[in-house]
Amino acid sequence: MWWTEEKIGYYETAARNTGFHKDIVKAVERFVGKDESILELGAGLGYATELLAEDGYRICGTEAEKAAVETANRRAGFPLLQQADAYSGKLEKADVVLLLFFGNLAEEGHLERFLSLARHRIIHLASRHRGYGLPGRKDRSEETRKFLASRGLEVETIEFESDFDQPLRSIEDAHRFFDLSYGRSDIRNLYIAFDSRYPYTFRNHKSLVLSVIEKK
Length: 216
Fold this sequence. Notes:
By secondary structure, the protein is an alpha/beta fold. The chain contains seven helices and ten strands. Strand 2 (58-63), helix 4 and strand 3 (81-83) form a beta-alpha-beta unit. Helix 2 (20-28) crosses helix 3 (47-54). The N and C termini lie far apart (36 Å).
């Protein structure tokens, strides 16, 4: 289980204090019409899902973990997300399948699954994971680009930057955050913030790659 109570708490604090999800939604909305339906897979805590719904898009968000679904629905005040497995669950097709930090397109069977659910296109967002040397987290954008080209798919790619800084209450809180998120107590990129509630901030600048894959 990824979404523990602690991880949810840290993520919600960062989401409330940054424009990260607004930046993502702004990029996504360039490639979706208001007349198109959206199926979001692996929606996590549903922040982007909620913003798209508020902007008038017809979106169905799904997430496998119960804790994340309950948190998102409680925050939104309505059934924003439904609990469903993106790979084995029976899901209704949509015009657009949205994958935000979810799904390795080059992994066997994944692309086929996502294409089977999309009428028009897939929108896939990934982070380049630059600068932290995190085990298991690497920039797969070039690998994904080559894989999609080998499949003869039409892909448009855009890159943009956004900050998802993590406000922290103390040095002890910072160590705990790093342990949970990165598996180590490395507090590099920790800065003093002039905020009595959160006197420290982990600066998390992200380089993002959005791939829009048109279905043949």
